[in-house]
């Protein structure tokens, strides 16, 4: 007989992942439950998330929630109805409106508003609404970790000032702001022992990254989940890639 080693209950985590219906968010959800963790998988429209719905049917550890990160009032109501503690709050929801430069007609006011509201305000609203769920008062005997939860912001190297480029300026600006927001939250929440990190998932073969990207969703998700595990109050404010490379702001 082959002996299997299971982690103690207090080592199992509950993750809340926004933008969980496809790409990196879907793959992180899938890998997390395969690791034995629980996932609150948030999507804007569950009716359009057939792959995630099918995955949830096979894994009772997944709880599906319809959540729009730009609708703060709705997020607050949803957060109030969630009673469990959250170990890792993953702010993954994001949109890109166009790759072109200054003259790209995709950069119109409505599209720009959607990018900024989702990629920046969405992170802020998510963090603020679920902050109470990150405060841990339970003991290990109750089946959960006694340490406070943490926040992982999925940013991008495209938001780095030192590695600026001429394409997708609105998306780049939004990711620069998301990284900056993660740093601000790290400073504010440090006294509460809540760690915050910003992460570059790599250039990933998703709908956003395209088929020519050099990283698979599986590789990116595995790397990100590993980086989240390494995040604690001693390295809060970190800005790094899925592979652990420290990135320039």
Features:
249 residues; globular; disordered N terminus; alpha/beta; single chain; 35% helix; 7-stranded parallel beta sheet
Quick summary:
The chain has 249 residues and is an alpha/beta fold. The chain is built from 6 helices and 7 strands, in the order βαβαβαβαβαβαβ.
Helices and strands in order, then pairings?
Elements: E1 14-18, H1 23-34, E2 38-43, H2 50-58, E3 62-66, H3 72-81, E4 88-91, H4 109-130, E5 150-154, H5 169-189, E6 196-200, H6 217-230, E7 239-241
Parallel strand pairs: 1-2, 1-4, 2-3, 4-5, 5-6, 6-7
Helix pairs in contact: 1-6, 3-4, 4-5
Question: What does this protein structure show overall?
Answer:
α1 crosses α6, α3 runs parallel beside α4 and α4 packs parallel to α5. The protein is α/β, with parallel strands linked by helices and 249 residues long.
